[in-house]
Amino acid sequence: MTAARTTAARRDVAVVGVSLADCGRVDDATPYTLHAQAARRALADAGLDRALVDGLASTGTGTLAPVEIADHLGLRPTWVDSTSVGGATWEVMAAHAADAIAAGHANAVLLVYGSTARADVKAGRRGATYDFGGRGPAQFEVPYGHTLIAKYAMAARRHMIEYGTTVEQLARVAVDTRANAALNPEAMFRTPVTVDDVLSGPPVAEPFTRLHCCLRSDGGAAVLLAAEEYVRDCRTRPVWVLGTGEHVSHAALSSWPDLTVSPAAVSGPLAFQRAGVRPAEIDFAEIYDAFTYMTLVTLEDLGFCGKGEGGAFVGEGRLRVRGGQLPVNTDGGGLSAQHPGMRGLFLLVEAVRQLRGEAGERQVRRAGGGLPRLAVASGTGGWFCSSGTVVLGAG
Predict the structure, then answer these.
(1) How confident is the model at residue 136 (pLDDT cuts 50, 70, 90)?
(2) Confidence class of residue 69 from pLDDT cuts 50, 70 and 90?
(3) Which domains, ranges and CATH numbers included, belong to the chain?
(4) For 348, left (φ over 0), alpha (ψ -120 to 50), or beta?
């Protein structure tokens, strides 16, 4: 099937293909290999021919990332995006791609990512650290040891001081996320942990111990979005993009108005408003979780609970697939499943698999046993510098 572009009316947009490349410990692949794996698998998942892909969103490999990735994949796109806002990048790119397809500027857009972050560290290769350098606003903070983890730790401590949030409540996020990972055969770490395990681990940046922090892995992912007229030719159940929101807040920590409020407080309400749904209608959430505090404060800012109520909200078992009131990071998240750098694309892959009923043992079910209908994926970049939120609905 070929579809002529049109600008006469906005088109509905669906995710028609998703995939993961090899993830975890991948010592014999390059980022290009992982990009190609993910792209091929997403196209096969959708059942669409590569020739139909006329849009590409990519970042992170080479000095001309979208150009180099397109050439490696054999694509000649007429719409490209290389937005780079940290971990929120992929939700923001998905929003841009959906807008482009809806407006008729593209018909099928591939979002694709691959990273050998863990293997790079193991081999001592350049670019293997996440220190974000010391340029621009960061030059006034990095010399004093105020690196990425320290910024998140400071924000968590501020929330604890303002609202009485406890380190035990933060630890519950890690415990529940690991319980979800235990149901995912693709997760890197699946052994259950307890609150005591989290609290007694090696300290990283107070109040964080090691299990409060994401793992480092290799891996890749791809998401294929297409206009509504392609859906009937796909082999998968469509998942519709219902609403999106994005927001950039700050770069320097001194420019952050309130360390207890993330940029999801802007991107989330925008996405829900545009989707025409309320947080209370969402069946599960995929939230960027480089640190446990990210999950807690993002839940607040998306509107699942009030500001300052996140500690109580993540009470025992609430975030679990089995028995939880709001399953969160159903694949095990960046804390336990995989985290090859900019993990936002993995949130979209897992959300789509859940909405299509393809999540195996970790499948979320509604009351009565039905499949979920609505999901939200929200990515965060930098040190709460940016946020992208996408609301998805089952076809």
Answers:
(1) confident
(2) very high
(3) 13-123+220-233 (3.40.47.10), 136-215+242-394 (3.40.47.10)
(4) alpha
